[in-house]
Write a structure and sequence with these properties.
Radius of gyration: 19 Å
Family: Belongs to the N(4)/N(6)-methyltransferase family.
Largest sheet: 7 strands, mixed
Strand order of the largest sheet: 3-2-1-4-5-7-6
GO biological process, one term: methylation
Structural class: alpha/beta
InterPro entries: Ade_MeTrfase_dom_2, DNA_methylase_N6_adenine_CS, M_m6A_EcoRV, MeTrfase_D12, SAM-dependent_MTases_sf
Order of helices and strands: HEHEHHHHHEEHEHEE
Helix content: 25-40%
Protein name: Site-specific DNA-methyltransferase (adenine-specific)
CATH architecture of the largest domain: 3-Layer(aba) Sandwich
Shape: globular
Organism: Treponema saccharophilum DSM 2985
Strand content: 5-15%
Number of strands: 7
CATH topology of the largest domain: Rossmann fold
Length: about 300
Amino acid sequence: MAIAHPFVKWVGGKTQLLEKIREKYPSKIEKYCEPFVGGGAVLFDVLSKFQPKEILINDINKELINTYSQVKSNCEKLITVLSDLQERYKKQTLEQNRLFFYEKRERFNAIKVELNETENIEKAALFIFLNKTCFNGLYRVNTKGLFNVPFNSAKNPLLCDVDNLRECSKILKNVEMKAGSYTQCKDFIGKNTFVYIDPPYRPLSETSSFTSYSVNGFSDKEQIELKDFIEEISKKGAFVLASNSDPKNADSNDEFFDMLYSNFEIKRVFASRMVNSNAKKRGAISELLISNLATVF
């Protein structure tokens, strides 16, 4: 039996940490919310193992949410467009594909700016195409909100995984989707809602903040506001599990999250991260899993 898995590559994706994250799942999940859905590794894992009656996913990246929406509602049309892109890509030389990439990146940005449509199947297909052919699968925008990640010289990327897209479409049928601030999930979240929160990570150094996921940043101020949100939904009776970077990787005396989440359970787990431009600095680092499952508010 085929199991749906993320249809885009995502920096900080949780596929390799799923085994540790699963240990924190409640025994029963009838209502599920993911306010920062990203690539959706945990989403697809939860939906494949449980049958929640109500599901809400959200992300500030409206292009990402548009892509989820098109996979859900217009999968066959999306497959047609992606298949055409894949066939052309396979037939071209590397230099032709490099030029093709920048042509499609320009078209993607033009759709974003000129049409400003929330729902657009071409934009969704280009989102997946660019994700598979850009450097490290990054999603980064400039101050004007335009996608600006360069070409990665991939020789034969799988641009259209037909079987997985169809499985994703099936499993997303009952999922409500929103684009915007995580705070708009507040009204959905109630008692016994399982909420997985995977926000933009706190940078371990000045140079490690390599992406601008949106034109709005996510500073320590936003991390503190997120903690307040987690406390608020915890008081509503939600089961909360959150991920973040471990500042102690860079400074053993940095107690930012240990102090911020002193009322929560904090577990350190290890993941390999391949984003650093210096290959010698890539490898296993600890990350935080922050949970209220053992906490009474």
